[in-house]
Backbone:
């Protein structure tokens, strides 16, 4: 028997995202625990829909931001997952990783950071070669904008300075670090953290780099995997990327510490980050990418993780509302991050 309903979550997602995330298995499990997931009608103003205890979204644009602001004004106790201003930080591959340098994980033998990288904004800077002199080739060329579009996923492995003129700025050049052909994808859902491993680009030896016939290769060429564009079903693509391997996962406590630090620093609840283990130093890990609201359905048991998070969210929301209502007390939060104080009405 289903529990009493105590949370309605409106979801506003692009069609492709909706199809991959909103599955019957998720809807059924959430409903059994009192959470109702309701689709937001894109043809109707958000403020005129609901009532919603929470709005789960992955839509962009000024109009959508205005709708969220209007909805929040009319529903001050509703939760927005997540704030557009916080999400936008992840749309730039430089700003997304700057937060990593601010993190501190103490008392561990493992260390972490990001690969050396630079950003090139124009063709002239790219052509003169001076900007990239500090980088060791090969490098990974990535579009500066990371907005989830097909264009933002066009990446290449570049073996020489001469090949840079084939690229179109603005781009990020990131040193390629050998990592055993394995990437760790860490999914964060509030305080829930799950780490899985996937195939990645194979290591590149100096001899191999010198022996390549082309000085710029797309990721599909380097990996010798089927081109993602040729795989119609996204699930089949990620099944192809799964593999049985003896590679040890990073220590869970270490990963949880990083995930918690990122969540607090970015003020985001739904994201994943990609981690590689530097082959030169077995206890050195590098964060190479952070994505908002990733494909959670690719994570084993995603229904349980998301439903647990939704329940935590609704429980915390109810606790906060009860505290505010007791004794007609209004909570005042100082804007400088200082202590909260209560003021009787």
Residues:
């Amino acid at each position: 028997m289903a529990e009493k309903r105590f949370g309605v979550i409106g979801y506003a997602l692009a069609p492709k995202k909706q199809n991959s995330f909103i599955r019957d298995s998720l809807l059924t499990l959430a409903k059994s625990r009192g959470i109702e997931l309701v689709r937001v009608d894109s043809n109707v103003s958000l403020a005129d829909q609901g009532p919603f205890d929470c709005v789960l979204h992955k839509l962009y644009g000024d109009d959508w931001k205005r709708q969220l602001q209007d909805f929040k004004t009319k529903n001050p106790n509703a939760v927005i997952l997540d704030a557009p201003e916080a999400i936008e930080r992840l749309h730039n591959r430089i700003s997304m990783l700057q937060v990593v340098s601010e993190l501190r994980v103490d008392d561990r033998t493992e260390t972490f950071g990001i690969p050396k990288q630079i950003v090139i904004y124009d063709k002239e800077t790219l052509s003169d070669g001076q900007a990239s002199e500090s980088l060791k080739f090969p490098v990974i060329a990535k579009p500066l904008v990371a907005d989830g579009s097909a264009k933002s996923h066009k990446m290449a492995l570049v073996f020489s300075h001469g090949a840079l003129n084939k690229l179109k700025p603005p781009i990020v050049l990131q040193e390629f670090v050998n990592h055993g052909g394995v990437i760790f994808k860490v999914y964060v859902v509030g305080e829930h953290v799950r780490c899985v491993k996937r195939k990645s680009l194979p290591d590149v030896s100096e001899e191999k780099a010198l022996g390549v016939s082309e000085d710029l290769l797309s990721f599909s060429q380097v990996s010798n995997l089927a081109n993602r564009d040729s795989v119609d079903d996204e699930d089949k693509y990620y099944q192809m990327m799964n593999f049985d391997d003896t590679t040890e996962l990073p220590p869970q406590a270490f990963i949880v510490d990083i995930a918690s630090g990122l969540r607090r620093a970015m003020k985001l609840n739904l994201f994943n980050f990609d981690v590689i283990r530097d082959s030169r130093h077995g206890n050195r890990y590098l964060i190479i990418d952070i994505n908002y609201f990733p494909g959670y359905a690719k994570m084993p048991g995603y229904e349980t993780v998301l439903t647990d998070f939704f329940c935590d969210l609704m429980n915390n929301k109810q606790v906060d509302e009860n505290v505010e209502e007791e004794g007609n007390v209004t909570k005042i939060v100082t804007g400088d991050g200082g202590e909260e104080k209560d003021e009787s009405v």
